Amino acid sequence: MSQTYQEAIENSNIVSKTDINGIITFVNEEFCKISGFSKEELLGSNHNIVRHPDVPKENFTLLWNTILSKKPYKTTVKNLCKDGSTVYLNTTITPILDDNENIKEFIAIRYDVTQEVELKKHLEQKDKELNLLNKTLEEKVKEQTAKLLELNQTLEHRVAKEIEKNEEKQKLLFWQSRMASLGQMLANIAHQWRQPLTELTLTLFNVKKAVKKENTKEIDAYYKESLEIINNMSKTIDDFSNFFNPNKDKEEFCLKSSIEEALAITKKMLEKNSIKIETHLEKIDIFGVSNELSQIIINLLQNSTDAFKDKETKKKISIKSFIDKSYAIIEFKDNAGGIEEKTLDKVFEPYFTTKHQSNGTGLGLFMSKMIIEKSLNGKITLDNYNDGINITIKLPLEK
User: Fold this and answer.
1) What is the reported pLDDT for 184?
2) CA distance 131 to 197
3) SS3 call for 88
4) pLDDT of residue 358
5) Relative orientation angle of helices 290-308 and 168-213, to the nearest 10 degrees
6) Chain centroid to CA 133: how far?
7) What local confidence, expressed as pLDDT, does residue 335 receive?
């Protein structure tokens, strides 16, 4: 039974014996396999033959002090193989005593934990990189927050200048509409961030599971996925900061890009409400301020989204752009039920809204009309079309 037990230990573990001076007197096949040395090279050699130069001398002082006091010593040892590679071994060194309780030899039983140690080191490195990325993201958030605060501090001054250029009533409406748009933008920021934060939480949970499985490929995949989510969140901050830039001058811009920017900003809102978007957009350059046109499209998308609420139909919005003679045409259609004919001629009036008072200011379409006519020198019309509305925006191609 004793022989069987010994064979079982030698077949399943890495075993060696040394005399009291640390000279190797026995090694099993597993020891030879993992070290790369033959029995002939090992037997009679000092156990320092597999000692790794990175291991501090203090570790060996503690080892010898422990085993010479006739106590077993347990640790994870970093060893150097014959080919120069490194292995990590969970090691238990036990003194063997003779009949007089004197130490006659030492037996060391080990098992390979190289994969676990390397995985832990790999994970710690990834954790450092992730912490650095988080720190960078926090700094970027602080920077963009400071810019938004500065923008907010100068908002009253800019509004005052606008009041000097235009009639008092229109400027008051402009102020109120900007505040309503800001509220919508903040809601869109919340939509843009809520989903990736949920995805990031799930990814980190999957990393934890992958660590337990010791699956390096899965850890790398989830790590890359986390980086992508965080980078997209960082880009979202830049996108919204750029959208609110008040210093943009009129210039030629791509109508298609401006509409796509509005769709990107409202993407989460549209997905949350299960609204399908169909676009057929030509690349057309017009003169004006790109984010003003984006704001108009956002207003239209918000209005349609509100109109779709509590409706069971398959929700669909279609946006087309094309050239008709010397004009760029934008057609915006939805199937949200349309507007009552008796109120159709009032939709562009200030404070008129078909929504409940708590859900709308009645300034969205009014401000859209004002921007199109006064800033973009165009025209906007709205009609009922089949089971929804058809809004047509007509913009001149020349300055």
Assistant:
1) 57
2) 16
3) strand
4) 39
5) 80
6) 11
7) 92
